C-alpha cells in the first residue's frame, strides 16, 4: 500500500496535481510515472502542484518535482507549487528550489499567477 495519494484535475490549460501523504524514495517512482503520463497525455500547458496534504518529502521528492518542472518548461509551460507545509518549505529553501520553481499560497493564487481563469 502506497503511503501517498495522487489526485489529478485537468483545468483549461493547467493540470492540478494534489499530493497527499509522503513523497519519499518509496513513492517517488510511482509519482514520477503517473505525473509524466498525465502531462504527456493531457494537453497540459501548465502544472500546479498542490502540497497541502503532503506530510513528508525527502530529496527523491525534490527530484520528482524538478523532473516535472523540466518536462513542463520544455513544452513552453510554467509550473507553480502551492500550499507548501513548513517542513516541505524548509526543504525547498535549503535545496534552492525557490530559485527555480514559483510558489503561491493556494491553488487560486497559483491559477491567477498563470493568468488562467478558474
Automatic annotation (TrEMBL):
SUPFAM superfamilies: SpoIIaa-like. The keyword RNA-binding does not apply. Keywords: Phosphoprotein, Sporulation. Transmembrane segments: none annotated. This is Anti-sigma F factor antagonist. Belongs to the anti-sigma-factor antagonist family. Residues 4-118 form the STAS domain. In the phosphorylated form it could act as an anti-anti-sigma factor that counteracts SpoIIAB and thus releases sigma f from inhibition.
Amino acid at each position: 500500500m502506497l503511503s501517498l495519494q495522487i489526485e489529478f484535475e485537468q483545468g483549461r490549460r493547467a493540470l492540478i496535481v494534489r499530493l497527499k501523504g509522503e513523497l519519499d524514495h518509496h513513492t517517488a517512482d510511482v509519482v514520477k510515472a503517473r505525473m509524466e503520463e498525465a502531462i504527456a497525455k493531457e494537453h497540459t500547458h501548465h502544472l500546479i502542484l498542490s502540497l497541502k496534504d503532503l506530510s513528508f518529502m525527502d530529496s527523491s521528492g525534490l527530484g520528482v518535482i524538478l523532473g516535472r518542472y523540466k518536462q513542463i518548461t520544455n513544452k513552453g509551460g510554467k509550473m507553480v507549487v502551492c500550499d507548501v507545509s513548513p517542513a516541505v518549505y524548509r526543504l525547498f529553501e535549503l535545496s534552492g528550489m525557490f530559485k527555480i520553481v514559483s510558489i503561491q499560497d493556494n491553488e487560486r493564487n497559483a491559477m491567477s499567477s498563470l493568468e488562467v481563469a478558474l
